[in-house]
Each structure stands twice: as structure tokens, then as C-alpha cells.
Amino acid sequence: MMGSAFAFILNARGAKGRGAAIALFLIQLALNLAWSPTFFAMHRIMLAFGLIIAIFLWASATTLLFWRIRRVAALLMLPYLAWLLFAGLLNWQVHLLNPHGSAPVSPTGETRIVIE
Hints:
Structural class: mainly alpha
Number of domains: 1
Strand content: under 5%
Number of strands: 0
Helix content: over 70%
Largest sheet: none
Number of helices: 4
Oligomer: single chain
């Protein structure tokens, strides 16, 4: 749906704000692509949560600009915004359940178990 929304904007040649909308979309997409390595590979739970917040803010701004250009493009972005809220909630819950879980695997590959 995001790809379709972006395609609508790309095809809106001459529309006012099109360049800014494309730039915002690409920024939020780059942030989105950074989330998985941050969360899964680096085990930086709170940094990943900060990324989700940033992605949501940039995607919201993108959606607003899309609305001014092609309303259908903005409507296609709404499920993505809902998903970001859900993903943020999941990310936060992982943090709450693992307050010291920033590095569950040691650099040597051995499992680290913390008993409190």
C-alpha cells in the first residue's frame, strides 16, 4: 500500500509540494529500514523505540503532504500509521519485559542469562 501511495505521488507531476512529499517518504523509508538492524542485530531496544517514534512522525508528515496532492495516497498510508503504533507498543513491551536486555548475546556468541 505504501508503494502504491508513493506511485500516486510520483505520477502527480506538477503538483505543488510533490518534491517535499517524495523527500519525506524517502526519509521515513530510510528510518524504517534502519529499525530492523537496530532492534534485531544490535539489540538496542530503546534506540529502536526512538526510531519507531521518528518513523511515525515522518510518516505522519508524509501522509499530510500526500493528502494535499492525492487523497487516495494519504488513505493508503493510514494502515501503515496504525501498524507503526502497534509496532511501537510491541517495542515498548519488549523493553518493559527486558529492562537489561540491550545485549542478550555476548560478542563470543554465548548466551547470557541474568538471574535477579
